[in-house]
Amino acid sequence: xxxxxxxxxxxxxxxxxxxxxxxxxxxxxxxxxxxxxxxxxxxxxxxxxxxxxxxxxxxxxxxxxxxxxxxxxxxxxxxxxxxxxxxxxxxxxxxxxxxxxxxxxxxxxxxxxxxxxxxxxxxxxxxxxxxxxxxxxxxxxxxxxxxxxxxxxxxxxxxxxxxxxxxxxxxxxxxxxxxxxxxxxxxxxxxxxxxxxxxxxxxxxxxxxxxxxxxxxxxxxxxxxxxxxxxxxxxxxxxxxxxxxxxxxxxxxxxxxxxxxxxxxxxxxxxxxxxxxx
Length: 278
Prior knowledge:
single chain; alpha/beta; UDP-N-acetylmuramoyl-L-alanine:D-glutamate ligase; nine-stranded mixed beta sheet
């Protein structure tokens, strides 16, 4: 990806201040809202079925996260997603815990079958569950057997690209190595630190950020998604460095992570990138 593309993607966030409708995880809703504000976007959290169509009409993108799934919000997700499709707004799905229960798995599959998803982002266990209709997700965490490594990277990239072709969505599989793929190409991203998996919310924040980046760059969904994934990974690296310098822990890391999102700019992003186009 050219430097000019990254610059335009970030500048569009700051200039357009995209409003992102989030139907999201109650555990991490505050982190998602703060991450969106930090990157230059604006959040609106609305999940009542009686207002979601109106709310999503006002927004630039829709972020659906099934982390605290309940039957009341499934209808809200479907209504908001279909309205966003009518308006050609990007829709991002975070199928948290798909493969861990039949309700989560069947709901994720129903959402995908009835809503055109611009991006589907999950750990590799969740992505496999989406592909197969079942899975071995351990709670909301990836099964260790599904982790992407240097040894299985080529196979994993091929799998994600095929799923992208099947679902007509950009697929993001996050982990030690992140994969962002459409049906023809894939970015592999090696930014990030293990501490990101030790706080609740880093994945949810990423899905919200993807929605913001895509909402501000609707004609560049693939590139905007890759930029947002790399951006958060770089912020994680910078936050971890600050934590180590202050002998801090998880709480400080969370605060520093949002801090670094608010400080992100093109030179910082370009200087920290560990990304390859497969």
